[in-house]
Xylose operon regulatory protein (Stieleria varia), 381 residues
Amino acid sequence: MKQRSVALLIETSNAYARNLLSGIVSYIRSNQSWSVYLPEQHRGATPPDWLRQWRGDGLIARIETEAIARVVEKLKMPVVDVSAARHVPDIPWVETDDGSIARIAFEHLRERGFENFAFCGEPEFNWSNWREQAFQEAVENAGHRCDVFHSRSRYAKGYSINRERERMTRWIASLPRPVAVFACYDIKAQQILDICREQKIRVPEELALLGVDNDELLCDLCTPPLSSVIPAAHQTGREAARLLDAMMGGQTVPGEPHLFEPIGIATRQSTDVLAIEDTDIANAMRFIRDHACEGINVNDILQHVPLSRRVLEKRFQEIIGRTPHQEITRRRVDRIRQLLIETDLTIGQIAKRTGYQNEEYMSVAFRRAMKVPPGQFRREH
């Protein structure tokens, strides 16, 4: 069988794109031996000269501009798009689920007791707009208000880095305190942290901050270290490679979205705070956070807070929006999801690490929450 030649039009300058590439490489090593062409490319660049003359068997591309879209549309070969821009709507599109990213971001911030929320985005990008919309909806459905800041495009006429920083500084200063801020991605969150340090705004006590992409080097370099949503970029890359392989093999793949939910949240110091005024419920949340995967139940919580079960559940539901039992289960299921995706542990080993007596009990709880059994979830993600 002839070795297939595949080009990757994906930049390598950010963590999300690098994880996409790692997923593609993972698929190639497991399933096919492709000849891969990965030239240097930066985001938003003009179409490279090689693309117009490419005569390979397939292409996986982040089609970020209309100019690149026009060139790609003329190629006589299978193409899979891994950009949220959707400039070529009739080809397969593989992306992270931005609505899910925003919703788990809100839950992460809400469970820390915040009632003031804000979003900082870049409206020139679809993924930022989708995250903003879903985050606002989640905030408003919970009965709160969401302040929004739109960064201006660096390509806009009259753009100035200093003026843009001044705008953001004024916006941050205007926010009520304490406030939980969701930044559209880690680089934007880093900019906010820099301003907070200059303005002597305490993070996370006055302003808790959450980014997206979990760029570990960037997050750990931030002061304080930045909490971040972990998108399923690796799984997205694997799926893009699988779809391209099917297309090169003669299969028809509809031009529809294939979206992957985020893996979870890497919690670091920028959100490691509880803004709950009710000290008993705050203590209950801390206990659940620290011990959820040790097989605890509501009776264990009652040993640590001076409340009756009825009062605990009533106040917990009013403040957190869930019962204590639901919160324990949610945290355990989140941990199971992470271990299924990120490790090679067996289902039985994961059950022990998340506080279940055996894998049958864990599988029932996981299926009830996620609508699929653990094994199927692992295969799909």
About this structure: The chain has a mean pLDDT of 91. The chain is about 50% helix and 15% strand.
